[in-house]
Amino acid sequence: MAQTTQLDAVNTMLSAIGEAPVNSLSSGLVEAEIAETVLNTVDREVQSMGWHFNTELKKTFAPSTANNILLGADILRADAHLEPNSPDLVQRGNKMYDRKNHTFTISANVSLDVVVQLNFDDLPEVCKRYITLRATRIFQDRLVGSGTLHDFHIRDEQSALYELKEFDKAADDHNIFDNYDTFSIIDRQGRRTF
Length: 194
Prior knowledge:
Elements: H1 6-16, H2 30-48, E1 55-61, E2 75-80, E3 89-92, E4 95-98, E5 110-116, H3 125-143, H4 147-171, H5 180-191
Antiparallel strand pairs: 1-5, 2-5, 3-4
């Protein structure tokens, strides 16, 4: 079976309001353009949650010539990699900010955990399904506003989210040391002086 494309997703959304499918994303049909906009918004929203498949751990970033850590347009979220003596960095806009020193000036390489925006075609099928169903429900709510259709779509959406979470949990190799509370206790033990 072929992978779901953006065009497939838009056509699923159109069928939910009784519209005929389109042959391309640039069809000129107003409803198709609205569907594509909703799909792209939901795609970004879902990927922003951070899943195993779009999270990169301990990625090294070098400072720019102005001593800033700049993030690419495809980075949805970034945080300093959690390890002993790591700087307390947070994302502000497209740069990292040093909360301890109250500055954007960072002159050394840093390790960041980042959530990356992937192209729709590069997403796992289970994620494409959830994005499509969520976008379909939102699209239908905005254009038609049928409570009956809303209830029908919300059940499918919730089922797809459950499947996505199960997929993500199976792919991720969590252990007790991935928990921040556990890490902070271990880190505190390492800093104890006698």
